[in-house]
Amino acid sequence: MTSPQAYEKLQNVFDNFFFGDVKVAPDLEAKDVEEWDSLLHMSLILAVEDEFKIRFGVGEVESFQNVGDLVDLILAKAK
Amino acid sequence: MIIEKDPSFTRALAEATREAEQFSQVIALHNARKRAEKSDLTFAGGRKARIAVVGSVTLRPLADLVDHFIAVNCEAQIDLWTGEYDAYVSEIMDPGSELYRFKPDVILIVPSERKCRYTGSLLDPISEQRQCADKLVGELLGLCENAHLQSGAEVILCNFPLPPYYDPGPLRSSSLACDYGFRKYVNMQLGLACPTFVHICDAEFIGNRLGTLRVVDDRAWFESKQPFSAEMAVQVAREVAEIVSSLKRPSRKVIVFDLDDTIWGGVIGDDGLDGIEVGTTSPRGEAFRDFQEYLLSLSKRGILLAVCSKNDHERAVEPFESHPEMVLRMSNIVNFKANWEPKSDNVRQIAAELNLGLDSFVFVDDNPAEIEIVRQFLPQVACICVGADPSTFVAQLKDSRLFETRSVTTEDLGRVSHYKQEADRQSQLDMSTDMESYLASLEMVGRIAEFQSVDVPRITQLINKSNQFNLTTRRRTESEVLEIIDSPVQIGFTIRLSDRFGDHGLIAVVVCNFQGAELVIDTWLMSCRVLKRGVEQETLNEIVRRAKVLQCDRVLGTYIPSKKNGMVKDLYCNLGFVPIEGTPGSYALASPEYVSIGSQIAIQRDNP
After folding, report:
1. How far is Cα B568 from Cα B292, in angstroms, rounded to an integer?
2. Domain extents for chain A?
3. If you count residue pairs, one on A and one on B, with CB atoms under 8 Å apart, how many are there?
4. What is the CATH number of domain A3-77?
5. CATH topology for B437-605?
6. Is there a contact between B224 and A42 if contact means CB atoms under 8 Å apart?
7. How many whole angstroms separate alpha carbon B505 and alpha carbon B526?
8. Domain locations along chain B
9. pTM of the model
10. Is B147 helix (H, G, I), strand (E, B) or coil?
11. ipTM computed for the complex
12. Cβ contact (<8 Å) for A42 and B226?
């Protein structure tokens, strides 16, 4: 999977997941999105795992600061 | 995927929700619904439900899934309130808590499986382990009762999924000091002791069905105290919604079923009584018979059985009246419609005659076209299209969730007495000291009949399958068996046996050759299920009775040894035959002097 493909797929997950329009971008962070609180975070991770057919390890879920980190992790897992 | 302005939005949403298995799919549908609600696109019913979710785990996203499934199942708008992580005890115990200010209709309690464990040692005596488990059961049910008394809400308690891991080995199911045994015990006790206002969401069962390895997500527990894997959360939420919608839904009371290729194989109008497949003769016949057994068991728990078939009435009732392998009889059917009118008209007619609402009806047919006409004209009727493979019919009905009972009522008494009979039969065996009084207590009835065409498949099957109680092991094809019926020199008869516990069906076959002064036993076989009940004696009585009618002086019998029929090598001697010198395995009995041997079987003859 290429980086643009991952961003495109992640955009699809975000579209289904958030009420408002959230555009994925490498420097997008949770605090930029009002709905994206700590409760929603786990759901989002589970949804990402579902869609990309990958699984994060314990601790990895907190390890990324922004969407760019998340996509890097997805690309590393989805190899 | 779903366009919100589409007028068929709710229908499409319900359809997609029914199909969705994946967590991300359900969450996407949940959000689509929420967006639609914001733009005032609400469910047609406009009903409201107030759902509270509390527990010792993180309650989201589980609560969102529950919210979505209830909204779709009940076509209701949901007000959802979720408690704080692990605050459920205080939320329930404090009468002034936010939980009660919310005024919920339904309270879902999700305790953590991590608190359902034995803290002592594996070496502790079992009584101590049980005490610890009972204490937890008492606490949980106490909380449920409190929640109900404070709010009047229906309480749904989620029980505990079983762990998937091997640890600690064989002790898993012989001790309560490990998670597996402890949770299993606690779940059972919760179910046995729970009052009517508590409904168990059976996570143990749901988890087993899904596969326990797929239930756990230890990572998600450490990460955010999620109770289950995402996949399991979907299944649990679905079950909670099923419980909530079943509380208000009228139960299904009538099952209307088709006949041809639904409860027997073939078409009675074309194939006739001898041609339809039902009974132990063939695998397919056995599957149809099993399906009938299941329908009968539904009737015993109070579901009414009705027939709706495109047939001539006279032909359609024939198997019910005279096919020996049918389980269902006319007395089991409350309404019988066999005609050429559309089935939707017939089902409506049955509902009118029984004075029951169509929403309490289930319609079962193998033909998609018939299902479609009923669906179109009577949308309230639940339809099951069983398809072409009868081995799947029972499972389809069992998994339809249409015949579930949440409590045992007087209607179930029939079923209870059935189990009681089985238990009686067992205890009978334990108690009887002497065989004769046991046999007498069975109240056996033996029915002797000439070979008849309808029995030919079963006779042929016994002839070709019986190995043990089979004196000559002579095999025959169906057409050879058919020839015996009209033969002037061959005599074939069968014996059926029933007792007060049930019908054993056709269990013995005899073929004799009439040779002037001698009647020669060509074939004598019996099912071992009924060994030593007196059928052997009654069979010989019948053979000799016929020899006397035919004025034969002697009855001749042969024992041809095989690898498997050693059990009958002394049968003829034991019954009073004398070995014929010079021909080993041949025996003779002088018929005029023979006196019938008594047994505890009451004999009836179909055609004397």
Report:
1. 35
2. 3-77
3. 56
4. 1.10.1200.10
5. Aminopeptidase (3.40.630)
6. yes
7. 12
8. 43-248, 254-407, 437-605
9. 0.70
10. helix
11. 0.90
12. yes
